[in-house]
Design a protein that fits this description.
The protein is an alpha+beta fold and 319 residues long. It contains eight helices and 14 strands. Among the domains are: 93-190, no CATH class; 260-315, Ubiquitin-like (UB roll). The radius of gyration is 23 Å and the shape is elongated. One of its GO terms (molecular function) is protein-macromolecule adaptor activity. Residues 21-73 form the SLA1 homology domain.
Length: 319
């Protein structure tokens, strides 16, 4: 069976909006609709929020031409870009508040050396870094070296033993864009447990896609959207002065439409819920299948995604 859904994302513009009115989205073949809000979009995909609150990502080429034109319209693009520019507040494991916008997953080396008695971080004098950047460097080095660095003097004393060659630490985490426009690489271990639950789910898939920029961009897009959804919920709860911290952390589900065919005879549309194998990373998927009954639909979905497990099947004339 031809698969024409690949969820390929190249250069993308993240577009997020929590105020969009729900609209009807139609499959490219027609006849199947979904009531949802657009939450984020790229050149090839759109992330939708269903009435149930579930977030799903759908390839644009599986949607109608009218839907594709709607996403590409200047009015929608401008509106969502404005919403996407909002800053967020993230918290480190020890309580430091960081104002910044999550941009992408990434890897980056942290290089530390001494030059004429002064500490140098990635070829920039420590004293020339902005205050927030300095705090983050001190916290990162404290974690990596297992000792507390309170200020530049403490870091300078430690760095005296480095000699002429810099010491390099490979870091894995997310890229944050600050209110100043500067971008900082922040390792996962620096974030609080609550924030990490939102930022880390797509990391395994991203890290295993070293030679696939499109796949990495896909995971970054979904992480950005999950992060914004989490921040919006948290802000709403804080404004309402709710004491509980039972924040709903949405992880985006992949909505696969590639197994849909024109319904003929006694066939129906079935939504088969799949989750990754035990111990393996992956996102839950809802696979839409044209089949005679639920058993056939289940077998077709499992054949298309070997190793996945079924967590639910339902008949759906609408998805």
């Amino acid at each position: 069976m031809k698969i024409f859904v690949q969820l390929i994302i190249g250069l993308m513009t993240l577009a997020v909006s929590s105020e969009a009115m729900a609209r009807s989205w139609t499959s490219a073949a027609g006849g199947y609709t979904l009531e949802a809000d657009e939450i984020a979009s790229s050149d090839t995909s759109v992330i939708l929020k269903r009435a149930s609150g579930k977030l799903v990502v759908v390839a644009l080429d599986e949607l109608s031409k009218a839907d594709q034109d709607y996403i590409a319209s200047k009015e929608v693009v401008d509106k969502l870009r404005e919403s996407a520019a909002k800053m967020q507040t993230w918290t480190s494991a020890d309580g430091l508040k960081i104002r910044g916008r999550v941009v992408a997953y990434g890897r980056k080396d942290l290089s530390i050396s001494r030059l004429r008695g002064k500490v140098v971080i990635n070829s920039v004098l420590f004293e020339r870094l902005d205050p927030l950047h300095q705090k983050l460097v001190l916290k990162i080095m404290s974690e990596l070296e297992g000792e507390t660095f309170q200020d530049e003097q403490g870091l300078n004393r430690w760095a005296k033993v480095l000699g002429a060659e810099p010491k390099v630490y490979p870091l894995e985490g997310v890229l944050l864009e600050l209110e100043t426009g500067d971008r900082l690489a922040v390792p996962f271990f620096l974030f609080s447990e609550a924030d990490l639950e939102v930022l880390s789910p797509g990391w395994d898939a991203w890290s295993k896609s070293n030679d696939n920029e499109a796949a990495q961009a896909q995971e970054s897009l979904m992480m950005q959207t999950e992060a914004r959804h989490y921040q919006e919920q948290r802000q709403q709860q804080e404004q309402q002065q709710e004491q509980q911290r039972d924040y709903q952390r949405q992880q985006i589900e992949v909505l696969k439409l590639n197994m849909l065919a024109a319904a003929t005879g006694v066939t129906s549309i079935w939504e088969v819920g799949l989750q990754p194998p035990l111990g393996a990373y992956g996102r839950r998927m809802s696979v839409m299948v044209t089949a005679q009954n639920s058993d056939v639909a289940t077998r077709m979905a499992l054949a298309q995604y070997p190793g996945y497990r079924v967590f639910g099947v339902r008949k759906a004339s609408r998805f």
